[in-house]
Write a structure and sequence with these properties.
The protein has 1 helix and 9 strands. With about 150 residues, the protein is mainly β.
């Protein structure tokens, strides 16, 4: 009889575990997690950039690190307003924005983010331009290469 009770207890425990898994939110993942592309920022320079994406449901973030623009002077944390424009599903565009950056020493490459945006399941996003506003100066960088290994798919 004891063996029968263990079987019922195990079955109930398994049913509870399966129910908990069914109620848990689906894990969201963006692929690839990291991508590179090149930017031309006019008289401010040109170079490569690394974009690192993360997703939590319909919210997504992208961090940008680029050698295309270097800081002429020390820039304090949170002093760069950034907008990353991406093609969305091959036709429209979407923007990821933010005013968060680490402190950047004079001569250092610009890093900014996380930049935040909204995504839907299946969205395919590829970087096309980056606008940085530092000390009231606007720097616009245009992508000169496709994003590699490819667009972010959410």
């Amino acid at each position: 009889m004891r063996h029968g009770r263990l079987g019922v207890g195990t079955a109930i425990g398994s049913a509870i575990a399966v129910g908990a898994l069914a109620l848990a939110p689906a894990a969201s993942a963006v692929e690839p997690r990291s991508a590179t592309l090149s930017f031309d920022c006019g008289s401010y320079g040109s170079g490569s950039a690394t974009l690192t994406a993360a997703q939590d449901g319909t919210s997504a973030t992208i961090e940008v690190s680029t050698s295309a623009v270097t800081a002429p002077v020390d820039i304090g944390a949170g002093a760069v307003d950034s907008t990353l424009t991406l093609t969305k599903n091959g036709s429209g565009t979407t923007e990821f924005t933010g005013g968060s950056n680490p402190a950047i020493p004079a001569g250092g490459a610009v890093s900014t983010g996380p930049l935040t945006g909204t995504v839907a399941a299946g969205d395919s996003l590829e970087g096309t331009s980056l606008t940085l506003v530092v000390f009231g100066i606007t720097v616009t960088c245009d992508a000169t290469s496709p994003q590699a290994p490819g667009p972010f798919v959410f």
